[in-house]
Design brief:
six-stranded antiparallel sheet; Neuraminidase; alpha+beta; five-stranded antiparallel sheet; 31 strands; Serine Threonine Protein Phosphatase 5, Tetratricopeptide repeat; Potassium Channel Kv1.1, Chain A
Length: 588
């Protein structure tokens, strides 16, 4: 074959691109050196009379603002000296330092004008860095002024950080002159939030009064638009009547009508203020025909008892408090070969349970464990109902799908034994855990699978268990041993420091311990009988809090009524409760 007819050789080696990092950093360093040596500078920028010789190319590369200035038909593109308005000379010096070195120096006293300059010059990195710096360094003394600044420039992360601090310190801020400088829109935004830490809603009203009176002539006409953000449902009728008679309300024609309309219609979307709520454990009076629930916070010495009409408290098969602070009761009614499930949710404002219009049939086992050993738990917003099946040595579980308003079956769990009553099923993090002294299993909702974990060997019987953070705490029937499980390392540890008064004198019968987590601390409730002088039995209650640092339990000297109170489930349920909404007897 002739050479001309042969196919040309094609190389299999592909071309590559190489980047010289040292050149990139060296180039920037060289540009900085030229600036310091005042070499090859083509333009002088004048700010507040101070002159800054610069390079048009460098400015144009760093900032779209300068690029437009020097590459268009603007007069500045031909001038040797350009005067910049609206900038601080010291701040512009920091800007130029960043442009020529890549290093930005930020301080609290200069961060606002630095942000303004960056916003004008379209320097995104400088602007974003200033935003993060302000959000991380919000202080009590600067939060209101910084909040106003963030509103002007729509800096969302700074607004949120300022709002959090303002909400936490609202009482102190409202008593001074800081709120008086706010616009009506910012004021209403602040007082409309649930997170406002006030113990009485009258504090919000008094803050509004001071704001209006600071510039009465200019602000009185805003009063009727502010009033709907005051939660009159948290005020007593006397407080509302006093507001209606206030000179500001009487002077503004539309305010009285607004108040009466708000009070009459109400607003179910308005939740209790953070400062008007308290974490409380829910206890149930076990006396026959009793519909009493005791809401307690022994740390604060607060005990509020509420009695409900028999038809107002559902017959609970299982109960839970969700991560969004909703209290749910699942009521089951036995039908022929199946169970009717009804879900109820606690209405905080009305202090009552309301049917969630969810009714479903669950074809559960005929030999399921007693209702008080069934469980309702939540994992990542989904409700799970767990029932034990003794004859089949298994757990049966269903989950509630809110989108289709139905219960759906989940993976079953085969048990090794049913010698221990199934009383401890709980959620921890994004998983669900089943626990006895002999076996432990973990359910992963994303995979719909169960897996074995290490059980708490050495504990006589797991009677109560509760989750806190990534750990699970459990104790036995007689409160002689408590253990803690680390869900991340799958390991157990025994807690020490048991108090000497576990078995007080005259204790008759069992202690019925129930663990619970209140204000991020581990507690335990002991309910027992004691014999009186005339040999009568009397119910007593003890509450201990665990000091992890000292590894010891401390008696809180709780003053619960001498009644037989029990928890619902393997631990006391805890929810954040609005104190003004509870209609009952306050024992404090």
């Amino acid at each position: 074959m002739a050479a001309a007819d042969q196919e040309p050789h094609v190389s299999t080696v592909r071309p590559r691109s190489y980047q010289d990092q040292s050149y990139l950093y060296g180039f920037l360093g060289t540009v900085g050196d030229l600036q310091k040596a005042e070499v090859l500078q083509h333009v002088v920028l004048e700010v507040e009379g101070r002159r800054f010789p610069c390079h048009r190319l460098v400015l144009s590369a760093a900032s779209p603002y300068f690029r437009a200035m020097f590459t268009s038909d603007m007069a500045e593109s031909r001038q040797k000296t350009v005067v910049l308005q609206g900038l601080d000379a010291g701040v512009f010096d920091k800007i130029l330092s960043y442009i020529y070195s890549g290093t930005l120096h930020v301080s609290l006293d200069k961060v606002q004008p630095l942000y303004q300059a960056a916003d004008l010059l379209q320097l995104d990195y400088v602007r974003d860095t200033c935003s993060s710096y302000m959000a991380m360094n919000v202080e009590r003394s600067t939060c209101v002024d910084l909040y106003k600044f963030a509103d002007i420039f729509s800096i969302d992360i700074v607004q949120k950080a300022c709002l959090q601090l303002i909400h936490r310190n609202f009482v102190e801020i409202a008593s001074g002159d800081e709120l008086s400088s706010l616009s009506v829109n910012l004021l209403t935004e602040i007082i409309s939030h649930d997170e406002l830490d006030v113990k009485e809603e009258t504090i919000v009203w008094e803050a509004v009064v001071r704001w209006v009176q600071h510039s009465r002539e200019d602000r009185l006409h805003h009063l009727h638009s502010i009033l709907p953000h005051i939660r009159f449902n948290l005020l007593t009728s006397d407080d509302t009547a006093a507001i209606l008679e206030h000179p500001l309300v009487r002077e503004d024609p539309g305010s009285s009508e607004v108040i009466r309309t708000v009070v009459q219609i109400g607003n179910s979307n308005q939740k209790p203020r953070l400062g008007l709520t308290m974490e409380m454990a829910l206890l149930f009076n076990t006396e026959r025909r009793s519909n009493e629930i005791l809401f307690m916070n022994p740390q604060e010495g607060k005990y509020i008892s509420c009695s409900y009409h028999p038809e107002g408290l559902p017959d609970s098969s299982a109960m839970t408090v969700t991560s969004d602070n909703n209290i749910h009761i699942l009521e089951t009614k036995e039908l022929e070969h199946e169970n009717q499930l009804s879900l109820f949710k606690y209405n905080h404002e009305k202090n009552m349970w309301e049917n969630e219009d969810m009714s479903s049939v669950f074809k559960g086992p005929e030999d399921n464990f007693k209702p008080h050993n069934n469980h309702l738990v939540e994992v990542d917003g989904t409700l799970y109902y767990i029932v034990g099946v003794r004859s089949r040595y298994m757990l049966q579980m269903i989950q509630y799908n809110r989108h289709i308003n139905q219960w759906q079956e989940c993976a079953e769990l085969a048990l090794e034994s049913t010698s221990n009553i199934v009383r401890t099923v709980l959620s921890c993090g994004s998983h669900l855990y089943f626990l006895t002294s002999e076996e432990m299993h973990c359910y992963d909702p994303s995979e719909d699978t169960w897996c074995k974990r290490t059980p708490p060997w050495g504990i006589p019987e797991v009677f109560t268990a509760v989750a806190m953070g990534t750990e699970i705490f459990c104790s036995d029937y007689d409160f002689t041993k408590t253990m803690v499980y680390n869900t991340e390392s799958d390991s157990w540890q025994t807690l020490q420091g048991w108090p000497d008064l576990l078995h007080p004198e005259h204790v008759v019968g069992d202690l019925y311990p129930r663990l619970f987590v209140l204000e991020n601390k581990l507690h335990i409730l002991l309910n027992y009988n004691t014999s009186t002088m005339d040999s009568q039995l009397e119910d007593r209650n003890l509450v201990f809090v665990y000091d992890r640092y000292a590894d010891a339990w401390r008696d809180l000297k709780a003053t619960l009524p001498n009644k037989n109170y029990r928890a619902h489930g393997s631990h006391c349920l805890v929810a954040r409760i609005s104190l003004p909404y509870l209609k009952g007897h306050n024992n404090t």
